[in-house]
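Limitations
The structure tokens in this dataset are predictions for the assembled complex, not deposited experimental models. Users should treat interface geometry with appropriate caution, especially where small molecules or nucleic acid strands are included. An illustrative entry is reproduced here so readers can see what is and is not provided.
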Amino acid sequence: MVTYIVRRLVTAVLILFGASYLVYLLTAASGDPLADLQASNAPNRDQLIQARTELLNLNTPAPLRYFGWLSGAVKCVIPFAGSCDLGQSIQGEAVVDALARAMGNTILLVTTATVLAIIIGISLGIVTALRQYSGLDYGVTFMAFLFFSLPIFWLAVLLKEFGAIGFNNFLTDPEIPLTTVVVVALASGIIWAVFAGGSLKRKGIAFLLGAVLAGGLLAVLDAVGWFVEPGLGPVVILVSGVAIAYGITLLSAGLKNRRALGSALIMVALGLVAYYVVNPLLAGATLWLIVLLAAITVVVGLVVGYVLGGYDRGQSMRSAAITGLLMGGLIVLDRFMVTWPLYTGSSRIRGRPIATIGASTPGLEGDFWIMGLDSFTHLLLPTLALLLASLASYSRYSRASMLEIMSMDYIRTARAKGLSERTVVMRHAFRNALIPLATLVAFDIGALIGGAVITEQVFAFAGMGQLFISALARTDPNPIMGFFLVVGILALVFNLIADLAYSFLDPRVRVKA
Amino acid sequence: MTIQNTSKSPGSDPGPSPVAEGGSVEPELKGLSQGQIVRKRFFDNTAAIISLVVFALVLILSFSSLGFAGIPGWWKYNHTEFLPVVNGGAPTYTNIFSWGDHPFGQDAIGRDYFAMTMRGAQNSIIIMFLIGSISGIVGVVIGACSGYFRGMTEAVLMRFTDIIIIIPLIVLAAVLGRNVGASLGEGVRVYFLGIFLGLIAWTGMARLVRGEFLSLREREFVDAAKIAGASNRRIIFKHILPNAVGVIIVNTTLLMAAAILLETGLSYIGFGVQAPDVSLGLNISQNEQAFQTRPWLFWFPGLFIVLICLTINFIGDGLRDAFDPRQKKFNVRKAGTTA
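Predicted assembly:
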């Protein structure tokens, strides 16, 4: 195993040398970094050309210049030495600094989109596989293909137009016309019916339920002016908490496991107490405080599950911890909602919260909650665009993988020995269906750090992709090389991780050293 | 150096076979040849057939309206003429029989937008086919050689593939766009772009075909051919390749769908098709600021991208189901639950 990893890493380094040399030559061939200066008629033109030639060492031919760049780049391998030198951009900024800033932004952008796409995509894939050839299956399949076929820049413009400008206009006068309520109610009813499946009666009940719930909710929210001053309040938190407790228990332990359900419900009660106790603490919150509270919640959940657990403690502990985390999420969400009017009313926002470009509002200052909301409004649309685009492949893959697993013999065996359908699906099928997806996820994470080039361009989001594109447009070699280095290393590393994860998850697959 | 995969990931089944799991042939497929079975399955797939028809219509519309390769088309304008702007450039299309002068409207400088969209669709389709065929051929040859010969050949070819994979496509496209493209005529550049992208987009195909060959070369019929004295070339092309053709065709189709998005995306950020030639992506990027005032400049090219890409995707999916019907078998109710 160790031999295998070492061999792979050595090859990876060689590949990286080869590819970086090629990219360096290609970048040098793609244009002249002095082009803009030669075309300018500034009085000190010649000095500027002289200065940039020296900065980028342009008098050395590119095949040799590469080794100068390389000697700086290999220093990055030495940890903590701080002597990392990837050269400077045309403006004289150190590439390492620019990369660090851009990477921070990009990670912020792609993490949410990837995590959501994985969760939603896999759930959709599993559900459609279990309901193969139903209305739901056809609907989701069609939507998956549609999103798969949408050019992301086109989708982004639509989102900007209807998601941001439309919603902001709505906020200035938050009146929902009756027709909209009816349309939303009907749409929600249809979605509920499609998800419910089964007999006509069942579908009808689901349709009515969905339509009434959505329509009623929208009408009530509109009537109390919720869109201007949103919030959840203890009652909504309690109700959704109980719903979450039932849902999580149903999936992770089955409702028959009363102890698991009990531990989950206790977590809901504790969460409600925490809602009042922690609230003053949250006023001066930082990110680390939130992380700390989340960790405490998980520990408390595990303890509650362990105490109540009975013979199968694991299930109770799992249900309680997950429920606790989601309750915490609700409380944080409520806190953000309470801050919302303060945010939209701020002089920098002026009542148009959803941003169409950029990563943050320039000049906006405020506490953790205000800045969090600011990030949220800026990340919302690009995240949505990326999410829709990558949802399709996850749902298709997990559907295919689940279908294959469900026709396996051991599934029939599990059914034959009388296990409940939940156990068969969640324990026997679902886990195994995830194995091929682990590879896909690893690849995607590696690709996403540098991959959101077009999305970042459309939303003027100052991340890796923008750094790369703008450097390419100026024929600025060092940032291009920096970008390539990060993306290349990530691709190779995650490639290795994908292979190792596969053999770890599926012992039938052996790595050959 | 490699992972030996004894289980199969979805969509990588080597032998397309009409035989169901238990070894029995489905009754309606008895006595049919492999090709007949695949054709029958494909033509039974409604979505794929509708997509095929729609794609054919788009193809005919775009190539016949503007004409192609010197053959004049039936549409009265072309994509470069500046015409007086009529009615603020709004579309004159009212119904299928009265198209008016400018069915898709005109852009800010008076060019007929129908002609521009058709030209863009032509370019996208040309590039799509070029990428599909070239990267298909290169990928199959490289994958087949490395999978069949193993050893040194495989190591060299696969490391070469790794190098190509991690070089960002846009760098290569930028080099092409700046240097080579500028010296070529307008009509030739599109072909050049397609060929060039095809020469770098073959990596996924090569890995897939290599995987297929790795498993197929261990099968008995290959041993039999070897013992009978067949040459390597004969074994590759006559014995193994026909068995891998399903995976290759399906992957080529999906590659072509991705190629459409690649070309339009590159053109959108300015590294693909360059003005004065038009592309669907370029049309959108030139006109997205005008969304509030002239939304049709944004809608029509996008619609054609989605139409082409969606139909190709559905055709590819239909082909996959036809070649590899394993996913069709599972049925909850038959499996004994009433959930």
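Some entries come with short summary sentences. For this one: The CA atoms of residues 13 and 324 of chain B lie 7 Å apart.
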